[in-house]
Amino acid sequence: MPDAEHRTTMLIAYDGSEESRRALDQAAALLRPTHVELLTAWEPTHRQAARGAGATGMHQGDWTSSVENEDPAYTSALAILREGAAAAEDLGLKANAHLVESATSTWSAIVDAAYELRPDVIVCGTQATTGIRGLWRNSTAELLIKNSSCPVFVVPPADNGDRPIEEEPEQEGQAEG
């Protein structure tokens, strides 16, 4: 249990999705922080375009962009971060907002920020994608769990409770032992 001098530090990954808003709401209700570090990771448009062109095998031109040129990805991420800070404030939390540029992946940007901010816990939402769709998508939550040096509090999507739990069918004629 933390002493009076130590305040639990919580890093909340916020991308503006319904899942990240739910994670913020659940963290506020269940973990009851007073202060949070709110983080939005973004990738510059030129890097997104280069990655997309590289995946198709097309020639990659010289992609240049900067924040000074008002990169639309930066502008969008900043708006998302402000929205998250306002949502945290509506929940009675004091949020320090952090906008970080993702050099390789969202999960690694969050882990790098956690290394610098030293939170006691990272909070994130998840889409809980399974089946074929799950094979084609990387799970940020799963990669945070595998690569973070602190606990990760993962909040499932709101409709996750509506999914039936698959039980193994009982086999007839099987003797109890």
CATH superfamily of the domain at 16-52 and 72-126 and 145-157: HUPs
What's the architecture of the domain at 16-52 and 72-126 and 145-157, going by CATH? Answer: 3-Layer(aba) Sandwich
CATH class of the domain at 16-52 and 72-126 and 145-157 equals Alpha Beta
Binned, the helix content reads: 25-40%
Strand order of the largest sheet: 3-2-1-4-5
Mean pLDDT: 79
Number of strand segments: 5
Q: Quote the beta fraction.
A: 15-25%
The major pleated sheet works out as: 5 strands, parallel
- Overall form: globular
Fold-level CATH name of the domain at 16-52 and 72-126 and 145-157: Rossmann fold
Return residue spans where pLDDT drops below 50 for at least 5 consecutive residues.
Answer: 163-169
Number of distinct helices: 6
Radius of gyration: 20 Å
Strand/helix succession = EHEHHEHEHHE
Category from helices, strands and their pairing: alpha/beta
Distance between the termini: 45 Å
Topology at a glance:
Elements: E1 10-13, H1 18-30, E2 35-42, H2 45-56, H3 72-90, E3 94-101, H4 106-117, E4 121-125, H5 131-136, H6 140-147, E5 152-155
Parallel strand pairs: 1-2, 1-4, 2-3, 4-5
